[in-house]
Prior knowledge:
Helix content is 55%, strand content 4%. With 312 residues, it is mostly helical. Helix 2 runs antiparallel to helix 3 (28-47), helix 6 packs across helix 11 and helix 12 (256-267) packs across helix 14 (284-305). The two termini are 50 Å apart.
Amino acid sequence: MGEHEAQLSPGPVDEFLSWLAIERGRTANTVSAYRRDLLTYALFIEGRDAAIETATEDDVAAFIDHLQQLGRAPSTVARATVSVRSLHRFMAQEGVVASDPSAGLDVPRVPRGLPRALQEEHVMALLASPVGGEPLALRDRAILETLYGTGLRVSELVGLSLPDVDVEGGLMRAFGKGRRERVVPLGRHAAAALRHWLSGAGRGSIVDDRALPRDAADAVFLNARAGRLTRQGAWLVIKKHGDRVGIPREALTPHVLRHSCATHMLDHGADIRAVQEMLGHVSISSTQRYTAVSQTRLREVYDAAHPRAQGA
């Protein structure tokens, strides 16, 4: 492969890879991935009795089609397309070629995977993990109950300020993408957990008589040093309790409680429009992804349990 690599690395490719590493600061792994894609592209172009410098839009389109015909994964085809387009755009900008032959081609879409959701018993175990009356245990319980009970994004959770939360009224104001505001209901368990955290034994104990940083003065969730909790801090809380109850780390992402909230609501008959409103989805199509999860789970349960689903 080394000999092929030497032969198939024309000047513009070498210059582009050097530019990625030096000017753009890309990692060695990223540059290596670009190199592999571009060597595959160079071999394909050579097989068409052409050169990268003289490639046309038809050549680039044929390369993308070639990868798809080989059965490459959509993500692999999309990545190779980005590599080839980046090379041709660089060559045009540097004056190596008069125009970019890939400019009019779209990157193939990668199908969105279904959201991952925990089984309900695993969520219950996670929610029960923070025990005791210590301030951080009260905070962790409130974080987990709020994420699962409201479907908030982690960024929305750590952005909460005290005026956004009406524990007694059972409501919470969240600010989503683009600072879009929505009001979400607080369930009984989330409200109780927040009430305990916001008491003198919880948040008040951490605050005590400290002079809080400006951005933490009205923050709902604080770290142990009385600063506003960050997304990374919230994620560490989730991972800590996931590890404690034995949930595999690959099954527990920052969004998993949001996914679980939506999926379980739909499993129990919630109206999809209500779930859309609660999650703050602009498009109903985003929420409909969760119905596919519910239908998949229903099919699995049916196949495993219904007498008429067994055998031929």
